[in-house]
Amino acid sequence: MHDEERELVETDTMPRQSILEYFQASSRPDEMAVVWRRGYKIERWSYERLLAAAGWFANELDCREIKRGEHVLIWGANSGEWIAAFLGCVARGVVAVPMDDIASADFAGRVVAQVKARLVAGARANEIHGVPAVHFDEFQSGSFQWQPIEATRSDVVEIIFTSGTTAEPRGVVLTHGNLLANLEAIEREFQKYEKYERYVHPLRILDLVPLSHVFGQIMGVFIPQILGATTHFMDSLRPSEVTGTIRSEKINVLVTVPRVTESLRDKVERDLESRGEIVHFRKQFQQSEGKHFLRRWWTFRRIHQQFGWRFWAIVCGGAALSHDIEQFWGRVGYAVIQGYGLTETTATVSLNHPFKSTRGSIGKAMPGMEVKLSEAGEILVRGENIASGYFQNGNVARVLDEEGWFHTGDLGERDEGGALFFKGRSKNVIVTPEGMNIYPGDLEAALRAQPEVRDCIVIGLETDGNAEACAVLILKEPIGDAAEAVNRANQSLAPYQQIRQWRIWTEADFPRTSTQKPMIGEIKKKLETGESNRPSGLREWITNWKNGDNRDISQASNLGRDLNLSSMDRVDLLAYLEDRYQVEIDEAQFSSATNVGDLEALLRQPASAVSVFPFVWWPRRWPITWIRDAAFYLLICPAALIMGWPRVRGKENLRRLKGPALFVCNHVTTIDLGILLPALSAHVRRRLTAGMGGERLCSMRHPSRERTIFWRIYQQIQYGLIAALMNVFPLPQRSAVRETFSFIGELIDAGWNVLIFPEGTLTKDGNLLPFRTGIGVLASQLKVPVVPLRIDGLYELRQAGKTFAGPGKVRISIGEPILFGREATPGEITQELEMRVAALGQRT
């Protein structure tokens, strides 16, 4: 027995040979397997449908004569199709090559060339030229059978490329045995608590880690299969959207990286501050130390209500979780499970037990794995979980030393109980002229405790042959406060750890990997070359996006005049800023921003985004639906017939509609909706909801306090009647665009038809006004049929000041449904819909 501690587990009598054994024909085919957002819609696949889609892709590989051992690149965001492509590859013995969704086309192309990929599958598949592609939109499920071939523990499953875009790509080769070594150990631990799973079944896991990383696969593909759980994916890291998804989807476990947990904590504190409760919260936070879990849960029940009552655990990986973040979530009553591992160790080396964790540690070694520390403190690992080699230039290089140990390059410590503590990457440790080791994480923790510091990293700068700690700071407040923040941080550090140099990072955030780790090499390079004082990442991104000539953009650049940002361009920009920097931006302030400098100022002053618009569901629930049906037959339909008895053309086009659709119509008068309803088929009308001016609905629901109480009551009654009888939802003109589009997606998911007037205002002269590009964005993202409508004759009635018209004077035309492919851009869709609505008028 070696001096190092070993933790081994008994093997099964018949050990698994392949990860495919977890994916046999499911005994729960109708249970939900994976849920993800596509555009503004939510896709939900059962286990049966997931395996059918995997069977279709496996069949596609057969049809293309892609053989066992050949390579297929999978390139796209987390989704059911991603899992299906991965499983389809494994089912045929084809080696999957996952690629980060954010990777450049150049890097992906170099990987394709190196592995000689026979096929590229994914949402970005068409960006690689010269190689056959299968887009995620082409995936089918139907009745395709899941029929995997046999495999052994030594067969290769995937090659994960982890090097940066400037280096020669190098992949980590993982086998069935590598994955099973981790999964079997975790499965055995889960079996101890299996009897409790029925109380939370089905367990719902929100996985925010890319599936191109093995940690994301373990938690998003394999663990859910073992537990019969449902995996949820998101394409946004915006804190309010993450919180909303956790609450609305009744998530139990969040799988993420440390930076996201920090962003969520910041949101909680901003929300408390906006309600004037932050001082009371901090007092309760201090007093709750050492209190029983249930007592803390009750004390912070408002936070649990914010995330939903079923949410109870955070699994964090990809980087070390800082002590203050771990303490925050643990103190307010959530289980925080932190692990440690690398791609070469198939994700997991050690894991904190959710009920027996050691604060600040990265857990104990997983069963079946040997872990020891070298004399220099480097973490060494040995076990079946270690990758079989590095793939580069067609060759596979060994990853182990002569004794079978893998050198992680990470430094650690171990307590008497065997718990590991991460001290940082060995290459990042700063050795002072006195020979003292400085761990950047210790200094960063002291700096982050200062109120002026939003984020920071500590790097070693070479000075006269020696290294000295240099803090790179992103500040919340003006630059003048940096010295004071550093001085206060130094007071909590040992003399040899003192920070004597610091730099201000002028960009809104550090460059990061897909798992949100700061890219130390790139940061260091920019500091050494002075590039950090060049235009910020925000300005560089706008330059590349809007200007092919890459001309400089200054803080004074006007968003409209200089950059030609349309209203939908602003929506895209807002989405980019909130996802890239993981902050909440006040949309009203964003809408009023005039130049790039205003946007950069907003990034430094994030605020809680609280919608004032009434996105509510009660008008679409019983008994309101029954009341609305009665009102239609007793009031709305008779009124429409008396006022004009509209002549309807093209009603037969509605018969082919089997599911929800998007309806677009020209906007003539304020009673357009009442005129349209009788013209529609009953199966369409009863499931129709229409967009109405959000600002108008908001003013009725929340009337000004300056008006009399009778006026306020009248406005609120008016809002209730309009919402209930006409089934409208707010469609703001100036803000909350993302929230509105997401709500429309929820309506479509729930089976409601949605009616939009894309002109955005009433016609001025009876002619069609240009359609706003938002309708093109909606149609491209919703992927449902779009039905053009047109009202004629009503404008003349309005101009004449008449209330009644003769039969047939008002005409309603219904066009054929259109389903746009992924090739169509929002601009092209907008133009096509405008032309179709205009053509309906020419046919009447």
Descriptive report:
With 844 residues, the protein is of the alpha/beta class. Among the domains are: 429-533, ANL, C-terminal domain (GMP Synthetase, Chain A, domain 3); 537-604, Non-ribosomal Peptide Synthetase Peptidyl Carrier Protein, Chain A, CATH 1.10.1200; 618-843, Glycerol-3-phosphate (1)-acyltransferase (3-Layer(aba) Sandwich), CATH 3.40.1130. A nine-stranded mixed sheet has the order 3-2-11-10-12-13-14-15-16, sandwiched between helices. Strands 28-34-33-29-32-30-31 form a seven-stranded mixed sheet. Helix 1 (47-63) packs across helix 2. The longest helix is centred in the C-terminal third of the chain and has 20 residues, at 624-643. Mean pLDDT is 85; it is low at 1-13.
Indicate the topology.
Layout: E1 6-7, E2 32-38, E3 41-46, H1 47-63, E4 71-75, H2 80-91, E5 95-99, H3 105-115, E6 119-121, E7 133-134, E8 156-161, E9 171-175, H4 176-191, H5 194-197, E10 204-207, H6 214-227, E11 230-233, H7 239-248, E12 253-256, H8 258-274, H9 278-287, H10 293-299, H11 301-307, E13 313-316, H12 323-331, E14 335-340, E15 350-351, E16 364-365, E17 369-373, E18 378-382, E19 389-392, E20 395-397, E21 406-414, E22 420-425, E23 430-431, E24 437-438, H13 440-448, E25 453-463, E26 466-475, H14 482-490, E27 501-504, H15 520-529, H16 537-546, H17 567-581, H18 587-592, H19 596-604, H20 624-643, E28 647-649, E29 662-665, H21 672-676, H22 682-685, E30 688-693, H23 694-701, H24 709-726, E31 728-731, H25 737-749, E32 753-756, H26 774-782, E33 786-792, H27 794-799, E34 811-814, H28 826-843
Parallel strand pairs: 2-11, 4-5, 4-6, 6-7, 10-11, 10-12, 12-13, 13-14, 26-27, 28-34, 29-32, 29-33, 30-31, 30-32
Antiparallel strand pairs: 1-17, 2-3, 8-9, 9-19, 14-15, 15-16, 17-18, 18-21, 19-20, 21-22, 23-24, 25-26, 33-34
Helix pairs in contact: 1-2, 4-6, 7-8, 23-24, 26-28
